[in-house]
UniProtKB/TrEMBL annotation:
Domain MgtC/SapB/SrpB/YhiD N-terminal: 10-139
Localization (cell): Cell inner membrane; Cell membrane
Source organism of this protein record: Acerihabitans arboris
Top-level taxon in the UniProt lineage: Bacteria
Protein name (record): Protein MgtC
GO cellular component, as recorded: plasma membrane
Topology term for the membrane: Multi-pass membrane protein
Main subcellular location of this protein, as a coarse class: membrane
InterPro entries: MgtC/SapB/SrpB/YhiD_fam, MgtC_SapB_SrpB_YhiD_N
Transmembrane segments: 6-22, 34-54, 70-88, 100-126, 146-164
Recorded family membership: Belongs to the MgtC/SapB family.
Keywords, comma-separated and alphabetical: Cell inner membrane, Cell membrane, Membrane, Transmembrane, Transmembrane helix
Amino acid sequence: MDTELLLRIALAGGLGALIGLERQLRAKEAGLRTHILVCIGSAMFMIVSKYGFADLLANGHNIALDPSRISAQVVSGIGFLGAGTIMLNKQMVRGLTTAAGLWVTAAIGLIVGSGMYAIGIFGTLMTLVVLEGIRQLSNRLIGQRYMIMLSLAPAGIDLVMQTLRKRHIRVIRSSVARNDDENKDCKMTLEVMMHARYKPAEIYSQLLAIEGMHKIDIR
């Protein structure tokens, strides 16, 4: 029994590593070590939930065993860790996929800890398909989401939008803010959220060539 439980923890760590490696390669907020720890911890919680009170039951204590109680706390508790990977920057939310990945990784740990190895392995493969395969499909169909911040003269704003349209870039949202109301040659800050099928760095030189352009920041 003890050997099998050790194997469950090792398998959970290995499956968590597969998901964490994909996140690490994408330079996401939670990477390899985080996913391994989440999966191992979930497996151990499930093991103690199922087998940790066998001595009390064997001694005839008048208690009722509910193996789902600890695992249920893992499901709710992992939300706090996932929330730490979500960031709001300039009204643009990042980290939701990583948070969902941590949530799924916790589920895989619980499943492996309960002894359902095939389901845990299949769940890991499906997670990797979603994280990598669906990502590539989405990028080909609608492109990746980017945020571009430009500091430029007011006359250049229309030229920026025309350049993006010519390159078939879909603009999701744009906003303009004035930097200096008193200066006639004031600079404007243009924020553009968009979907592009290639990195916007490829149009960096075109945007920089626009008259009155001062600064470009691509995120």
